[in-house]
Amino acid sequence: MAKNVLDFEKPIVDLENKIDEMRKYEGHLDIADEIKVLEEKVNQLKYNIYENLTRWQKVQLARHPERPYTLDYIYMITENFIELHGDRLFKDDHAIVGGLAKIDYAKVMIIGHQKGRDTKSNLFRNFGMPNPEGYRKALRLMKLAEKFNIPVFTMLDTPGAYPGLEAEERGQAEAIAKNLLEMSRLKVPIIITIIGEGASGGALGIGIGDRVLMLQNTWYSVISPESCSSILWRSWDYKEQAAESLKLTAEDLLEQGIIDRIIPEPLGGAHKDHHLMADTLKKVLLEELNSLRKIKPEKLVQNRLEKFGKMGVYVD
Amino acid sequence: MAWFKRSKENISPESRKTDLPDGQWSKCEDCGEIIHNKQLEVNLWMCPKCQYHFRIGSDQYISFIFDKNSFKEYDKKMRSGDPLEFEDTKRYKDRINATIKKSGLNDAIKTGVGKIEGQKAAFACMDFGFIGGSMGSVVGEKIARIIDVAYEDKIPLVIISQSGGARMMEGAFSLMQMAKTSARLARHADAKLPFISVLTDPTTGGVTASYAMLGDVIIAEPKALIGFAGPRVIRQTIGRDLPEGFQRSEFLLENGFIDFIVNRKQLKEKLSHLLFYFNSN
Ligand SMILES: [Zn+2]
């Protein structure tokens, strides 16, 4: 039986449980036809539910505790990964991981937010919320990649930069700001993928690139629906409405011209089939990398400036 | 006049009770001194007794930083396009219209070019009085354009920040203004053009985490709140009270994130000296 069932998935799980129950009697009773009917019904139900998710439901999927995280993708799609640690200034931040890897024949520097799966690993990873040294480590690795002409892939999955006392003391804002500036002029291809939660500056801090891709059930915005609800509605109870108002899904961002492409997930979400998800992601990343390789570094930087320069809606 | 309207809102509810006669007086939030508005203006909106810096808007900064009649404003009419047709308890569109009417500003920033002691500079100044000085598409685009002006004309850039952060009602568009402005600053820096960032109370969130922290020189007014996360959020996260002076200008100076603190009376002089040092001619 599946753990971590989301509220809207309950009808599916109930039906699946019923089928499992019936299977136990399949040897004694002639119910194969009935099971078949129910199986068709469950498939239909899955399509109906997963193809019509509300924005809030997609936020829930983006946070699903069984989703693949950065290191999972690295292990599934790359070879010879060498993790590199530390910002050379203060310490190693475990909420951002990165290192050199090989995808087919391409050398890449992969950097991403890293969440934990249980209480212990989440404490170790600080729930994927980086401190300034995380952003500084990411920048160090990007500059290293640039030095040896290695393209950069980043994977975004964070509930936000850590809002802690020491983070402020060590310059959380400065660390993020510097990354935005340096990434905008880095002379190697950068491909960004939002693999889970893209929460505000904490996500954008490793999020400037030539291509910005989003997995189908992820979100990316300036604030989480919960925080938005608490500030604008002065209550935590309006997160569903806040998610609707913020228009924060992959489809929304594609329409807004902020991302370039949506990467489809297995039915029900990336966590339903890690390997299928990883295969799809790998294919897309290599495709995008190949198209970027043809562009000269100066042109790459110029295009990047123009790409982000176009974002915004105003009346002149 | 515009300043006075805003300052009245900034006065805390308690001080409003002990109301001040005929709207000609203001109370210092720090020491409680009652000051005549004329005197306050002459003193660049600082308390004559304790030097507390009253929060002021772009018009006030322009009035004492730039040489007389030298400042020309750009993109004056630009307004938000409400890209998400955002609605919370109010429609964003209505919020914008009401704020424009009340504040006399079209958004949370003014940009332009003027002269500081005879030296030409591209300039932007934010207004906290417009939806908390929040950065949406208009702020980002106006900053990007004024950086372009500096780049094209090869002149220095000065930005005075005053902001609660990115504007929620424009969602990811607001977030991308951080990217847009930082990318423009990278090109500006590559052209070896100076950028001086001035931080005033408050400078937080997405503004701090982009252009405000990217100055060649970063200066701040005394006791300004400067940070990434707001104090309320940090208090909730760590579950205890924050130390005295946390996230204030003096704290940032101590931690190495700003170059110096400037009294408002010396702001123009310090800017003009810096422009002189960075001038290649
Ligand atoms: Zn005073």
Net shape of chain A: globular
Helix segment count of chain B? Answer: 10
The low-confidence runs of chain B, each spanning 5 or more residues with pLDDT under 50, are: 1-17
Named at the architecture level, the CATH assignment of the largest domain in chain B is: Alpha-Beta Complex
Mean pLDDT of chain A: 96
Give the structural class of chain B.
alpha/beta
Layout: helices, strands, pairs:
The complex is a heterodimer of chains A (316) and B (281).
Chain A: H1 10-23, H2 32-50, H3 55-62, H4 70-77, E1 79-83, E2 96-103, E3 106-113, H5 119-124, H6 132-147, E4 152-158, H7 165-169, H8 172-184, E5 190-199, H9 200-204, E6 211-215, E7 219-221, H10 225-233, H11 239-246, H12 250-255, E8 261-263, H13 274-293, H14 297-309, E9 314-315
Parallel strand pairs in A: 3-4, 4-5, 5-6, 5-7, 6-8
Antiparallel strand pairs in A: 1-2, 2-3
Chain B: H1 2-10, H2 13-17, E1 25-27, E2 34-36, H3 37-42, H4 58-65, E3 72-74, E4 79-80, H5 92-103, E5 109-116, E6 119-126, H6 137-153, E7 157-163, H7 171-190, E8 195-203, E9 217-220, H8 231-238, H9 249-255, E10 260-261, H10 267-278
Parallel strand pairs in B: 6-7, 7-8, 8-9, 9-10
Antiparallel strand pairs in B: 1-2, 3-5, 5-6
The complex binds zinc ion.
Residues 28, 30-31, 33, 47, 49-50, 52 of chain B line the site of zinc ion.
Describe, in short, the structure shown.
Chain A is of the alpha/beta class and 316 residues long. Chain A folds into 2 domains: 44 residues; 253 residues, 2-enoyl-CoA Hydratase, Chain A, domain 1, CATH 3.90.226.10. Chain A has 14 helices and 9 strands.
Q: Could you walk me through the main structural features you see in this protein, from its secondary elements to its overall organization?
A:
Chain A is α/β, with parallel strands linked by helices and 316 residues long. Chain A has 14 helices and nine strands. Chain A folds into two domains: 44 residues; 253 residues, Alpha-Beta Complex (2-enoyl-CoA Hydratase, Chain A, domain 1), CATH 3.90.226. In chain A, a hairpin with a 2-residue loop joins strand 2 and strand 3. By secondary structure, chain B is α/β, with parallel strands linked by helices. Chain B has two domains: 54 residues, no CATH class; 224 residues, Alpha-Beta Complex (2-enoyl-CoA Hydratase, Chain A, domain 1). In chain B, strands 3-5-6-7-8-9-10 form a seven-stranded mixed sheet, with helices on both faces. A two-stranded antiparallel ribbon of chain B has the order 1-2. Chain B is globular and about 50 Å long. The N terminus of chain B is likely disordered. Helix content of chain B is 37%, strand content 17%. The chains are: A alpha/beta (316), B alpha/beta (281). Chains A and B meet through helix 7, helix 8, helix 9, helix 10 and helix 11 of A and strand 4, helix 6, helix 7 and helix 8 of B. The structure holds zinc ion. The site of zinc ion has 8 residues of chain B, from loops.
